[in-house]
Every structure is written in structure tokens, then in C-alpha cells.
Amino acid sequence: MDLIKIAEESFATGKKEWPKFKSGDTITVAYRIVEGNKERIQQYRGVVIRISGQGDNKRFTVRKMSDNIGVERIFPINSPFIDSITVNSEGKVRRTKLYYLRQLRGKAARIKKKTF
Questions:
Q1: Residue 74: exposed, middle, or buried by beta-carbon count in 10 A (0-12, 13-18, 19+)?
Q2: Topology of domain 24-102, per CATH?
Q3: Nearest-angstrom CA–CA distance, 31 and 42
Q4: Please, which residues bridge with residue 30 across strands?
Q5: On the CB side of 96, how many CA atoms lie within 13 Å of its CA?
Q6: How many Å apart are CA 61 and CA 46, to the nearest integer?
Q7: pLDDT in tens, 50-84
Q8: How many other CB atoms are found less than 10 A from the CB of residue 95?
Q9: Where in the chain are the domains?
Q10: pTM of this prediction?
């Protein structure tokens, strides 16, 4: 029995399981940032506007508004710096790439919430 456990641990790649999310969802990404010899976790909350790539190369783009300036950040799904991902709300959208949000301002840039 002990040999089986040791073999399973050696083959474990350490990949983390994240919750299922799609374009239009509002998520919070806890991202580890190293500044010199200090390390902190930054909460990045925004709308997923794109998911691209296949398998290990999958990445997603999160857009948030910071002082009326749109900020987008691309996260690789298998990045070791991602501490956690939480889905805050699910959005109701018709397409997978939400680039049109870049031109919208204020209340027009809101996404409808999914009702069950």
C-alpha cells in the first residue's frame, strides 16, 4: 500500500482545480505578487471577457474598471501564482469574446445576471 501512495504522489503534477467559469462571469482572482523579498496576495475582481487556448495553454482575460479606466489582465490558467479563483456571479451573454465592452461606458457596460 505504501508503494502505491508514493507512486501516486510522484506522478501528481500539482495542478489545482478551479471552478468552472465562462465569459460574462464576474470572478475574483487571488494573485500572488512578489515584490523584492516580500510576497502579498492581490484580489483582482472583474468580468471575464475572453477564454482562449487549449489544455495547459488555456488563459483568460479579466476586465475591471479602476477609477473610470478599464484595466485588463491576462491570466494563464496553470500559473503557479494564482492562489484562488472564486466566481462571484454568472452573467448572461450571447457570445464568448466580449470585446464590445471596451467601447461601452457606465451603466451600458453592465452584464445581465443569469436567473435560474
A1: exposed
A2: SH3 type barrels. (2.30.30)
A3: 5
A4: 43, 84
A5: 6
A6: 9
A7: 999 888 889 999 999 888 888 999 999 888 889 89
A8: 9
A9: 24-102
A10: 0.79
